[in-house]
Write a structure and sequence with these properties.
This protein is an alpha+beta fold and 340 residues long. It has helices at residues 5-35, 52-74, 77-80, 85-99, 105-123, 134-141, 144-168, 173-202, 211-237, 240-263, 271-294, and strands spanning 306-309, 314-318, 321-326, 330-335. 68% of the residues lie in helices and 6% in strands. Strands 1-2-3-4 form a 4-stranded antiparallel β-sheet, with helices on one face. 41% of the residues are buried.
């Protein structure tokens, strides 16, 4: 029995969500362990690079992203993209049992709103035209409208990195995830170009000699590294169950916007689709606000604080107080040193 291309894409997309949802938890646990051995990723530390559990999560995420990349070759984006919501459900369930991270009731409602709104946006998004050659996608990438989008996006990324991150990175989840999502829109465009190059090469039309192939590959590598760096900071600073849905919503939204500008698909949309997308954006915005105001931010380790990991909890001594960071969510502090 032959399997259709859409079925292959469906299987790959579901597998991708399983791997990516699991990777959030593995990387989070690795970051927690690494925080006891050096500076946290959220404040610029890189001790997590020596943590095997973090690398396990990293490899799991790479496998999931590769599966997602291949899924886009076999199936249309309207089928693959909504299935990314499965990674949110998987990470939330695993976080409940493995990290003891829980959302308040309003936060749960916000998560559901984000998921529903994202699915509505994706379902009613304009149908995307898939270029048939690398030259075609290069022409689309260098059109004035998309170049304006690139300039505006890079300006926002630089503003977030240079100005907003030092001031609000530790308190506002939208800073880190904004950088990830904005760069992610470039990642998807580059990956599609690379996918076309690989497909043509396998068909006997080598794309290795084309400079556009290496340009898109370079852009994809830079964007992926940037995304991973700031995603690590977000995971190390904020609750995993909140990072996952907000990142999914923002990443999906920016991808749709970038694709619409680049492929000029909005012109053929009906009025009902446009109204549905507006409703979807309102739903997403409402859910994001609910998630943001009900989040339980993890405490940040102050400079000079002594911390250690006992296999289950992160503990520390700060300013003469013993602090137990129970499951990175609940904070109990009581004095253990008497002052004479």
């Amino acid at each position: 029995m032959t399997i259709s291309d859409n079925s292959r894409g469906l299987i790959l997309a579901i597998s991708s969500s399983l791997f990516i949802g699991t990777s959030f938890i593995l990387k989070k646990k690795g970051l927690k362990r690494a925080a006891a051995a050096g500076n946290r990723a959220g404040v610029g530390g890189y001790a997590y690079l020596l943590e095997p559990l973090w690398w396990t999560g990293m490899i799991t995420m790479i496998v999931g992203e590769v599966a997602n990349f291949v899924a886009y070759i076999y199936a249309p984006a309207v089928l693959v993209t909504p299935l990314g919501v499965l990674s949110i459900i998987i990470s939330a369930v695993l976080a409940h049992f493995m990290l003891k991270e829980r959302l308040q009731r309003l936060g749960v409602l916000g998560c559901v709103s984000c998921i529903v709104g994202s699915v509505v946006i994706v379902i009613h998004a304009p149908q995307e035209h898939m270029p048939a050659s690398l030259e075609e996608i290069w022409i689309l990438a260098t059109q004035p409208a998309f170049l304006v989008y690139v300039a505006a996006t890079l300006s926002m990324v630089l503003a977030l990195i240079l100005y907003f991150e030092p001031l609000y990175g530790q308190t506002n989840i939208l800073v880190y995830l904004g950088i990830c999502s904005l760069m992610g829109s470039f990642t998807i465009v580059s990956i599609k170009a690379i996918g076309i190059a690989i497909k043509l090469t396998l068909e006997g039309i080598s794309q290795v000699a084309y400079p556009q192939t290496w340009f898109f590959l370079t852009v994809a590598v830079i964007c992926v590294i940037t995304q991973l760096n700031y995603l690590n900071k977000a995971l190390d600073t904020f609750n995993t169950a909140i990072v996952s849905p907000i990142y999914y919503v923002m990443f999906t939204t920016m991808t749709i916007v970038a694709s619409a500008i680049m492929f000029k698909d909005w012109a053929g949309q009906s009025a009902s689709d446009i109204v549905s997308e507006i409703c979807g954006f309102i739903t997403v915005l409402s859910g994001t606000i609910m998630l943001h105001v009900t989040r339980e931010q993890e405490p940040v380790t102050a400079p000079g604080t002594v911390t250690w990991y006992d296999g289950e909890h992160i503990k520390s001594i700060e300013d003469g107080h013993y602090i137990l960071l129970h499951d990175s969510e609940y904070l109990d502090s009581y004095s253990v040193l008497a002052k004479n």
